[in-house]
Amino acid sequence: MTGAPERMLRRLEWRVVRRLDGRVQGSYRTVFRGTGIDFAGLREYQADDDVRHIDWNVTARMDEPYVRQYLQDRELTAWLVLDQTASMNFGTHEEGDEGSGKAVVLAELAVSLARLFSLGGNRIGALLYDNARQRVIPPGSGRTHVLRIANDILAMPSAPARDNRGTDLAAMLKVAAATIRRRSLIFVISDFIGEGDWSAALGRLGQRHEVVAIRVVDPAELIMPDLGLVLVQDAETGEQFVVDSSDPLFQQRFQDQVQAREATVEAAMQAAGVSSYLVTTSDDLIEALVEMVRQSRIVR
């Protein structure tokens, strides 16, 4: 397989993967504990624990519920759940740049993570989703498989705005839950801009799997630049309207909406109980991934 996917993968292998490989290999057995066969120890039961792991003999002796912990099998199955809906088309970039919009960052994050995990002999699958279509790439390993994922991401660009519909994130997460049966490590990469309550669906996904939510945003979605009169378009619905970006009242309303949206998303992530990270289109990809690795209890 040649062309854009091969060029993209080679570039990321040189810029990103070779610098991060040593940080994520060899640590799964000590930090990713799930339904493997090797007993790891006991601890007190917590509200979100699987009741099937309760050790009833120890519970009876201690008069408090205890759960058994197991080491996950060395081979890890990871999945990429990728939001390719219309809002991911948005993004600003410098003159002459190849592009650093949200869809580009999503693709680079996904391919980098796929290659990093494949280097350890682990299997990686992908679910590409927009409101009208979806594509499932079953888990596989090796560079050729990562190249297939890269090819499908580039072949299925973010959908155009249509039908005045916003992103149905809950539907995307429900598709992921129905598709991914075996306990896995799941990276959900999205801007998490959508209609309805998706927190419950994300929380249910996290009850069975280890879920990491990576939120991709553009700086212009957080701070409106002063550009005077500008024509803006809703990336989800396609609706266009003219705004005066230099108007102080408009700027204040914009910031109020941004703060409200950020608070809502943060509360939803906390309610879902998943690990979450914010990556902007202006971030250096290597630094962003290093920070995620540093903070994450999964690939620390």
Question: What report would you give on this structure?
Answer:
- The radius of gyration is 21 Å and the shape is globular.
- The strands form 3 sheets. Strands 6-5-4-7-8-11 form a 6-stranded mixed sheet, with helices on both faces. Strands 1-3-2 form a 3-stranded antiparallel sheet.
- It is built from 9 helices and 11 strands.
- It has 300 residues and is of the alpha/beta class.
- Helices cover 40% and strands 22% of the residues.
- Helix 1 (4-24) packs across helix 4.
Series of H and E elements = HHEEHEEHEEHHEHEEEHEH
- By CATH, the topology of the largest domain is Rossmann fold
Low-pLDDT stretches = 25-37, 93-99
- Taking strands numbered 1, 2, ... along the chain, how are they ordered across the largest sheet? 6-5-4-7-8-11
Radius of gyration: 21 Å
Tally of individual domains: 2
Average pLDDT, all residues = 80
Short descriptors:
300 residues, alpha/beta, Rossmann fold, six-stranded mixed sheet, 9 helices, 11 strands, 40% helix, 22% strand, globular
Task: Please write out the topology.
Blueprint: H1 4-24, H2 28-31, E1 33-34, E2 38-44, H3 56-62, E3 66-71, E4 77-83, H4 102-119, E5 123-129, E6 134-140, H5 143-155, H6 169-179, E7 185-190, H7 199-208, E8 210-217, E9 229-233, E10 240-244, H8 248-272, E11 275-280, H9 285-295
Parallel strand pairs: 4-5, 4-7, 7-8, 8-11
Antiparallel strand pairs: 1-3, 2-3, 5-6, 9-10
